Structure formats: structure tokens, C-alpha cells
Amino acid sequence: MSDITIGNVERAIKTTADTVLANQQYFSDLDGIAGDGDFGASLASGFRLIDADLPEIDKSSIGNMLLKISMIITKNVGGCSGPIWGTGFMRAAMLTKEKQEIGLADLEQMVGAAIEGIKARGGADLGDKTLLDSLIPIHEKLKEHAEKGSSPAVALRDAAEVAERKMEEAKALQPRRGRQSFVGERATGTPDPGMVAIACILQDWCEQFGVERTPQAKELTQRSV
Amino acid sequence: MSDITIGNVERAIKTTADTVLANQQYFSDLDGIAGDGDFGASLASGFRLIDADLPEIDKSSIGNMLLKISMIITKNVGGCSGPIWGTGFMRAAMLTKEKQEIGLADLEQMVGAAIEGIKARGGADLGDKTLLDSLIPIHEKLKEHAEKGSSPAVALRDAAEVAERKMEEAKALQPRRGRQSFVGERATGTPDPGMVAIACILQDWCEQFGVERTPQAKELTQRSV
Amino acid sequence: MRKFVNNPNDFVPEMMAGVAAANPNLLEHQPEFQLIKRKDRPVAGKVSVVQGSGSGHEPAHAMAVGPGMLDGAVQGAVFAAPPVDACYECIKQLASDAGVLVLINNYQGDRMNWDMAVEMAQAEGVNVKSFIIDDDVAVKDSSYTIGRRGVAGNFFVIKACGAAADLGKSLDEVLEVAKKVNGQVRTMGVALSSCIPPVKGTPIFDIAVDEMEVGVGIHGEPGRRRDKTKPANEILDEMFEAVSGDGPFSKGDRVAVMVNGLGGTPISELYVLYNRAARRCEEAGYTIVRNYVGEYCTSLEMAGASLTLLKLDDELEKMLDAPAEVAARIF
Amino acid sequence: MRKFVNNPNDFVPEMMAGVAAANPNLLEHQPEFQLIKRKDRPVAGKVSVVQGSGSGHEPAHAMAVGPGMLDGAVQGAVFAAPPVDACYECIKQLASDAGVLVLINNYQGDRMNWDMAVEMAQAEGVNVKSFIIDDDVAVKDSSYTIGRRGVAGNFFVIKACGAAADLGKSLDEVLEVAKKVNGQVRTMGVALSSCIPPVKGTPIFDIAVDEMEVGVGIHGEPGRRRDKTKPANEILDEMFEAVSGDGPFSKGDRVAVMVNGLGGTPISELYVLYNRAARRCEEAGYTIVRNYVGEYCTSLEMAGASLTLLKLDDELEKMLDAPAEVAARIF
Ligand SMILES: Nc1ncnc2c1ncn2[C@@H]1O[C@H](COP(=O)(O)OP(=O)(O)O)[C@@H](O)[C@H]1O
Ligand SMILES: Nc1ncnc2c1ncn2[C@@H]1O[C@H](COP(=O)(O)OP(=O)(O)O)[C@@H](O)[C@H]1O
Ligand SMILES: [Mg+2]
Ligand SMILES: [Mg+2]
Ligand SMILES: [Mg+2]
Ligand SMILES: [Mg+2]
Q1: Ligand 6 midpoint to CA D80 (Å)
Q2: DSSP D138-160
Q3: Is the per-residue pLDDT at A27 higher than 70?
Q4: Interface predicted TM-score (ipTM) of this complex, two decimals
Q5: A117-174 pLDDT tens trace
Q6: pLDDT for residue C305 is more than 70
Q7: In angstroms, what is the span from residue B36 Cα to ligand 4's centroid?
Q8: CATH 3.40.640.10 applies to domain C185-321
Q9: Which atom of ligand 1 is nearest to D80's Cα?
Q10: What's the CATH number of domain A4-221, 1.10.10.10, 1.20.120.1770, 1.25.40.340, 3.30.460.80?
Q11: Which site from A21, A122, D12, D247 is most exposed, i.e. has the minimal number of CB atoms within 10 Å?
Q12: Which atom in ligand 1 lies closest to the alpha carbon of residue A39?
């Protein structure tokens, strides 16, 4: 019961694709408030193929599946999102090449590895108002739960909680990396699209995996700008 | 009293310049309804110089003065208006090279000569929805009054009357020459800017020369589109 | 006003001064007449080719002055033909012993002013002839025109006459080249937006964001109809059929194709249109020998494009191939 | 949408197909990677110069492929850097024994994708180096960028590197040329309107008709400030002072000047700006050796312009003088 099967991972990926495709316009619109409005389309160009290929792709291990996901993203998604998300999935894949099942401790390490990869790739860090501002505290929360031996469901609920709260808190920040840095007044007060995407995805995972959680932020309840 | 002095002619020209300059934006806006909106600016580019030069220019005869006016227009006004107005003044000048004073009969012949010149220049004729649709009936009215021996004031009042009425009537026409031909629906129902200009000028002459006449058309009373 | 403009009345003179400043060795600008002329023209034995019209169609006309192209050009205010005097000066100053050919786009104002200027110059013994360009198939008579309008096909007439003049052909021979090109070139345009003459300060016509004017003129004159916008390929198809169906084109022909932007349409969109035009030519059995994608004859910042087809033969291919250079260049 | 577009997702592939169709002898288009390459490249002994970035900046980048310029270019979706795989293919397919130089405009997405591709190609033994262009003086860090952005100065780096590669210089020597140009070139832009990415279908930012964004980026990123519009000369003055005051320019210098349109501004307005730029250079004691007025690096149909100054020396003058030709041409 504290284990996450390859089937769970597949379902999480399928849900992620559904979230990205359903919110393509919304994510682009968010990106458009202070930037170039391509975030939704960029992510969707990868997850559309993932959605289509998922039934067929190599599922000999969690790592092999994630590696394939990473490659589809790297091949098809440009902008900042391709390298960031591709690197994240790639690093998580590296730790699970042989695994059919993982525990919370594995998941925590996968997220940690993804974060390191993303930092190295894009040069951003905590406080730069990127999706790292979600991933880093999520990682801490997962670590906490892994140490406590919590259930994946509880960890997921708390991760979604953290994603929503951090998204809210980061609004006040000035972006310092990626597409939205130096937008000055224009970006301060607006959420980071990458952080909104993370929060939406985690909320949709909650729903998919039967984890009860009621989001508060209009970014999650409304999903349109 | 039935004679028109060179001073009267000068005053008429000065008034014409005032009318053109005061209504520059209006004339361009009228032209803009179904065309390129340069009529007001084009005419003004000539009459601004006429207004400035009028005190200085050769007034040894009515013809010499009008010749100078014609040359200023030809030199400075492009588009259709330059050749049309330049030719008109030129032809009128030809008939009055030696004259210090003219009668209605002279005036009638000057307008007739101007009409012939304009027809030859631009190839338009009655019914093409150009300022000829004003000038030709005005010319007829002047002829009538010249034969009757009317006063210039009466002739002027009736000329202004004709200009206003013809302007109204021509709205229903489809333009066939110049800038507004083939505008189809867009131009039908709208007045011809050249005809509006003629009506405005004659109305302002009435006022200037103390001829009582109350215009009805909003093109004359309102002078804005 | 979304424009880089100082005093709107200075717009044309300042632009022309800029063109001359950018080509200090080649060009001279005479502000009294808004005349741009080659400093090294006229030359004995070579016909001078000149043109002039209202401003707002840049790079036509003054920016088309250069080796192998025009020898001089005058521009009036935006959308207003240049005054007679300016046309006359253009002819006089460019007159060589071989003569002057005036290329006139078919608009009432241009014709009148140039006609008077040509008469004046002829009266003084200048060997000058004029030729009327009327390549626009959209409408028969239009605003500004009796008969068809002269639009982007203008470029080909200039290019061929410029080359012919450089070859030392006589005035009558260069005139024949103009006739030939004009007889074999056809254009139609579509506008997606209006444009804003600086002095007017507001758009010259209203058009909704989802509307287009099919067969628009380069002063925003109405064309065949106002319609809802369509996918790029369908718009191109309509232009292609209008142009191809009107001209002397048949299977097996060698052609030049131009997709001309009207000023506000990015070059990326022009290549989307060209992509379809190339396909349509292939299907029609026309071999594209040369293509031209860019801005040649515009209406200020109007969003829109026109399609031009020119039927070629050996003589014209040689003329299009000939070296040429203009004020508005890339390198 | 005031655009010539079919399915918005096909916009970039169709545009690139059009570019290849317009240059059938010179260029090849590979739709899998949105790669445009010279058919006759790579060649032994010559460094290949490549570039790639998001679409929407045409004629940069794919339309700058041609003799004396780029050997190949990849483009991503509008305003999105091309994916790693496309960058990798571009490097691999253009790799000659003399090596490949990748010119990257300084945007986070471009850097990341190219960095990964360069690493991948190097791992396979390809002799490839990259160089970051950052000529925009408007802001230090910006959206998309740590450090300055790469904008229209890009053209000069391409032109000089293309010429250097044609001269048979080594990869390190061509890289030195890139460094030199980048060190001596400065740019700043001003936007008068937004632009509309086809997939988005609406403007990417709001700006009132009487407002301008001073120091705008080529993706519409904010610049130094939002302000009321001003007369053209005053806008040019501000650009001139920003650019001239930042770079290594001093009295007596020989310079190249570029007035670059952002896509929706007619060339007439660009010459009004150039007219002032020429005056300002004269007053500053700079001799303009070459000038460039037109569109080189755009933001779709954005109304706006940028000013670029490049300090010259004998070597660079020779490089700018060298023959070159690109897909987007006039004759
Ligand atoms: N250097 C970076 N590190 C981590 N995340 C980043 C970085 N740069 C951007 N991002 C994330 O990517 C999102 C934007 O993605 P996208 O719109 O695809 O990129 P682009 O900036 O190229 O348009 C941002 O909201 C941010 O969360
Ligand atoms: N051939 C012509 N004969 C007489 N009047 C004409 C002719 N063509 C145009 N006009 C007059 O000129 C007016 C338009 O002038 P203007 O706007 O200066 O010319 P353009 O058509 O060159 O823009 C019309 O309203 C009409 O009255
Ligand atoms: Mg983005
Ligand atoms: Mg007009
Ligand atoms: Mg006009
Ligand atoms: Mg982007």
C-alpha cells in the first residue's frame, strides 16, 4: 500500500497529459500576461504525442518509460519547457531504470534528481519565480513523508497543498530567470505559468487517485485568466 | 452696380482660401468616406500659399491675378485637384487678361471656359459625380441671369442655391470619374467632396458679400462628418 | 498614431531626405519637387526611365531609383499625385539626348499631372513619351481610375525598361518593352486592414478584424467585394484564379511570380502564400523562373498582399536577370 | 485574425516550405526538424555557420541562409526555441571537417536547447563551438534572458562570420570574428504595437495607440519603460543616445548603421528615422560607411523599430563588403 506501481506512474503520466492538453489555452494565456504566451502550446506539443504513444511505449521498467517520455519531450518541445521538463524526466528515469515499483523514498529521490538537473540546465534556483519554487518545497515535503513512512496518498495531498501555496506566495516575486524575468511591474503580482501547471497537475493527480482535496486558488478552480 | 471689380475678385479669392483652410479636415474626412482622404489637405496646400501671397501678387488685371492663382495651384497641388482647379483658374484667366472689372456676362464666360478646360483635362462630364455636376448647372444659371441683366448678388444667391441642390441630388449617383469611381455601395449616398467644397465656397461668398441666404443641407450648416 | 512621424506634413520630405542620406553617392534629393534622382543621370545615349506618384507605396517609387531601375522619381503627398511642376522638373532634369520614358500607374491624378508635364516638356523640345501601367485585374473602373489600376506589376515594367535602357535601346524600343511587360502581367490584391495616412491620422476605411477586401486598390479603394477572411490558401487560390484566368497564361508557360506585401503583413505570411502559389503554378503547368516575395508596392502599413504573374520569354528573362540595385536593399 | 494563416499549427512549416520553394536550387527544407539548409553544404575546408531560434523574427533566421551568410538554420514554433533534436540535426547535417559555429541569440530557451545539442554533437566527435550574441542595450536582464538579449545586431555577426568562413578561416578564427562584432555592436528598439502569434490569435501584450514600449524585446518583452509616443526624431534620439552611449564608439569612428523594422512599420517610416540617425551620427563625428534600412529581425507584425550601431575597422568593412545572398531578396 505504500508502494507506487508502474501502472500508477503510467496513470499519473496520462493524467498529466490530460491536464496539459485540457489547459493548453489557459497556460498560454497565463504566459501571455507577462510574456510570449507559448507555454501551453509548447507543453501540449509534447504531451499530445505522449498521450498518443503512451499505450505503446516501452514499459519494461518505470525508468525506461520515463526515459521515453523524456525523449519525446526533448525531441518535440522547444522553448524553455523542452529542456526543463525533458531534463527533469530524464534524471528521474536514471534512478528507476530497473524498477517496476517504487516507494515514497524513491519518489523523493527522483524529484530531487530532477531538481538538480533542472538547476544545472537552466541556472535558476529557489526564489527566481520558476517551477523550481514549487518543486523544491514539494521535494522537502516528500522527504518528510518518506522519513515518517506516510502513505503516497497523504504525501500527494500535501504536495498539492505546497504547490498551491507556493504558487500563491510567488506571485509577489519578481521573476529572475527564464522568459519572465525583468518584466518588472508587469509580472509582479501575476503567477508563474510553470508553477500554475505544477499545481494543476498535482491537483488532477489527487482527483485521479481518489485523494480528497479542495483547492482554493482561482488559478486551480477557474483555470482561465 | 452690376460690375465686379478686381477688388471683389480678390475678396472672393481670399474668402475661398479662408473656406478651404477652415474646412481642410472636413473636406479630407468627406473624401475619406469613400476614398483616400486627401482632398482637404491637397486643396489647402495650394490655398495656404494663395492666402499668404495674395496681398503681394500681380493685380495689374483680373486675368493676371487669376493666372498667378492658377500657377500656385498647379505648382503645389497634386492629386486630381491640382490639375482640375489649376486648369479652371487658368481658363478663366485667359478671358480676363486685360480686365480690371467684369460683368455677369464675363463671369458666365469664365465659368464656361473653366468647365471646358476641366472636361478636357480630366475627361469627366455631367453625371459623373464630380464638381462638374455643380459647375455646369451653375454656369447655366449664370447665363440666365446675365441674359436677364440681374445683379451679381442675385446671381450669386442662385448659384449657391444650385450648388447646394445639385450636391444633394448627386448623393444618389455612383461616381464614374476620379478618385471615387467604382466605390459602388460605399460611395452611393455620400456627397462628392468637390461638390461640397463648391457649395461651401459659394455660401461663404454670399456671407462675405452680404447676400442673404440660409443653407439647409447639414453639409453646409454642420461642416463636419 | 502608431507611427514614427514628426510633423505629419514633413513626412514625405523627411522620408525622401532619408533615402538620399542612405545613398549619398548615388542619389540626390531636391525637396522643392520631392524629386530623387541619380546623381550620374542623365547620360548621353541612354534613355532615362522615370516615374512618380503619390507617396505611401514605398519602396515604389523613389526607392526604386538606382542602377538598372529608375533614373529619377517624384512623389506627391501621401496618396496624392505629384504636382505638374514636380513632374515637369523630373522630366527636364533627367532628359538625355536619347529621351525620357515616363511610366505612369493608371490613376486619374497621376495621369493628369504627368500629361500636363509631358506636354510642357515636349513643347520645349524634350524627347519624352509616357506609358500607362494597368495590371490590376480586380476591377475594370475604380476609384481614381478609368480602366484598370496600376499596382505591383509596376515593378516588372520598371525592371525591364531599366534593363532595356541600359542596353542602349532607343526610346521607342524601351516603350515597346513597357508595352510587352504590361500586356503580360496581371495582379490582384487582398487587404486585411486599412492604413493610416500621417496627415489624416486615422484609418482611411473601416474593416472588421475578420473581414477582407478582395481586389483592394493600393489607396484602399474598394475591390470586388468585402468578405469574411478565409484560410491563406483559399485567399491565394482566389487571387491565383483571378490573375491566371485573366492574363495570357497557358500550360507550359515560363512565368515570374510575385507575392507582394501591402506594408503591414510580415514576410513569414508572404511565404505561406508563396508556398501555395508555387503549388498552384505547378498544377497549372507554369514553370516559375523567378520569384519575388517581399514588399514592392505598398499602402503604408496596410495588412494585405497581392499576387502578380508575369508571362516570360527569352527577352524578358534576360531583362529580369540584368543587374540592378535600388535604395532599399538588404546587404 | 488579420493574418494569412491556414491551420495556425502549420504556420511555421508552411512558411519554411515556402522559403525552400522560392529557392529550389539553393535550399532544402526538412519538415521533421524545421531545418533549412543549403543543398551544397557542408563543404570540406569551410566552417559552417548555423543559427536557430523561435519563429516570428523573419527574415531572421531561416531566410538568412544563403551564400556568404548562414549555411543552415532551424526554427521552433513562434517565439519558442527549436527543440534539442532539431538543433542537433542542424549541427550534424552541416558539420564539415572545418567545423560548425552556432550563433545563438541570448535567450534562455535558445541557450538551453543549443547547449544540449552542442554537447550531444561534441560527444559524437563533431567539431562544433557556439557563440552568444547579446547586443541589446535596453535592459541588463530581461524576460527570456540573463544578461542582454540578442537582437538585430545578429545580422552583422552572421554577415561577418559568413564572410570569414568563405575566406577559409578556421573555426577559432571565425569565432574570433563573432566575438569582435558582438563586442562592437549595440542595439535598442521601440515598439508602437503588439503582435499576434498565429496559435495564440490575440496580441501578446496591451499597448494603447498613444503609447510606446521603449527598449522592447523581440518577443514583446518589456524594456526600459512604457511611455507616451513622441515625434519620430525624439524617439530616434533616445535610441541613439542609449546605443551610442553604451558601445565603444567615439568621435572619428567609422560605423555601420541599421534601422530595423519590427514587422508592421512601413519602410517610409524607417527612412524618416534613418534621416535623423544620419544627422546624429554626423553630429557625433561618426562616419557612416554602410547603412541598412529595412527588416532584419522582427516580431511578426509588431509596429516598431530598432537602431543598431556597429563600430567598424578594415577587417569588418571587408567582411560587410563581401558578396552575400539570402532567400529574402529584392531582385
Ligand atoms: N531556467 C529555468 N529553470 C526552471 N524553470 C524555468 C526556467 N526558465 C523558465 N522556466 C519555467 O518555464 C516556464 C515558461 O516556459 P515556456 O513558456 O515554455 O518558456 P519560454 O520562456 O521559452 O517561452 C516558466 O513559467 C517557468 O516556470
Ligand atoms: N476627372 C475629374 N474631373 C473633374 N473633377 C474631378 C475629376 N476627378 C476628381 N474630381 C473632383 O476632385 C475631387 C477629389 O479630389 P482629390 O481628393 O484631390 O483627388 P484624388 O482623387 O487624386 O484623391 C472629387 O470630389 C471630384 O469632385
Ligand atoms: Mg513562454
Ligand atoms: Mg482624394
Ligand atoms: Mg488622392
Ligand atoms: Mg517562448
Answers
A1: 4
A2: S-SSBTTBSSPPP-TTHHHHHHH
A3: yes
A4: 0.91
A5: 999 999 999 999 999 999 999 999 999 999 999 999 999 999 999 999 999 999 998 7
A6: yes
A7: 5
A8: no
A9: 22
A10: 1.25.40.340
A11: A21
A12: 17
